[in-house]
Each structure stands twice: as C-alpha cells, then as structure tokens.
C-alpha cells in the first residue's frame, strides 16, 4: 500500500529536496506541500494523508501548533506527524511529544534515514532518530514525571504488559525487549498492540509519554 505524504516547510528549496527524495521511493507518494503550519492543517483535512512531514519553525502557524490541530487524541487512524528539526535540542519538540508527534528527525539525516522514518511513522511501530529521541525522552521525563506512580492509570494492564511498557519508555525496540524479557519478538509485538489498545494510545511515542507522565518508569534515564 502506498504511503501518502504531505510536506510542510517554509523553504521552497527544502520542500523540493524532500519531495525528490521521498517520491523516489516506490511505496511513498507526496500528495501535497505546505509553506506553513496553517496550510499543512488545511491540506491534512482535505487530503487525509498517512504522514505529515512537518518542519518545527514556520511562519503563520508553527509545526507545534499545526501538530496539535492535525493529531486528534481520539483518532487512531488519522495522519501521523514526523517532525523535522534543525537542532536536536529544539524546545518545541518536548511539547510536540505531548501533542502526539510520532517521530523526530534531524534535517541533516541521510536519504535512507528520511525514507525509513516516513515508513516507520506510517506504521506507528517505533521511535525515530535514536541520537536525539532518547535524550529528549530523558529530559521530558525530568520535566513531567509525577512524584509517585499512578496505579489506577495502568490498572487495565497485566504485570507483563507493564514490564513491556517500561522498556518501551526506555527507547527499546521489540527485538531488544524480547531479549531483555526472554520472550519471542512476536510475543512482544502482541503485548505492544494490547498496551496501545487498552490505553487508547496511537503509537509507541504516546506510550512513552504516558509511561513518564504516570510514573511507570524507574528514575534511570533511557539507555
């Protein structure tokens, strides 16, 4: 199935470059381009893409505000947002996690990394750009973690699912979680699916936010 993408960046040359790179992939199609966040929101509502590749800093409406408009907390199958950042400590990114951005990528990423990021975000399968994401999560945790765990928040989860959620929050992939818990990778994938369904979360990124906000994770930062 073809992944339908909208590009949002205020620089025409950047959009052209992104479009050329992404369109070269046989399974990805660029269906629209926006020069600011407001245009991105309007296009997303008109075209219902699978992924919006969103610059953080844009005029009229920035990528953060646009993400909040595009990503509905109640929509499981709506567009997913891949944020593009120039600096790996961009302050906007912290809030974007809460608003539902599904991934983050630096603008100097390779062609292969960009295409893979679009595919991963479309699948809702994993966090992106380990070089920045785990540090962002660690900082986000320090800002937003509750002093005490909230058992009622995870009451629907089994003890094994809570174990898996903790490891997701540490930035681990399914393979890494399987090794850590001595489980089959398919079993971990099943647990992840059930966690997202029970907590009504869109993807692993939201699972990370949930885990830190509700004190599920230990104080140790992500690996």
UniProtKB/TrEMBL annotation:
UniProt superkingdom: Bacteria
The keyword Transcription regulation appears for this protein: yes
Record's keyword terms, sorted: DNA-binding, Phosphoprotein, Transcription, Transcription regulation
Keyword Hydrolase: no
Pfam families xrefs: GerE, Response_reg
CDD domains per the UniProt record, alphabetical: LuxR_C_like, REC_NarL-like
InterPro entries: CheY-like_superfamily, NreC/VraR/RcsB-like_REC, Sig_transdc_resp-reg_C-effctor, Sig_transdc_resp-reg_receiver, Tscrpt_reg_LuxR_C, WalR-like
Record-listed 4-aspartylphosphate modification sites: 55
Annotated SUPFAM superfamilies: C-terminal effector domain of the bipartite response regulators, CheY-like
Location of the HTH luxR-type domain: 150-215
UniProt domain Response regulatory: residue ranges: 4-122
UniProt-listed PANTHER family: TRANSCRIPTIONAL REGULATORY PROTEIN NARL-RELATED, TWO-COMPONENT RESPONSE REGULATOR
Protein name per its UniProtKB record: Response regulator transcription factor
Organism (species): Fodinicola feengrottensis
Organism classification: Bacteria, Bacillati, Actinomycetota, Actinomycetes, Mycobacteriales
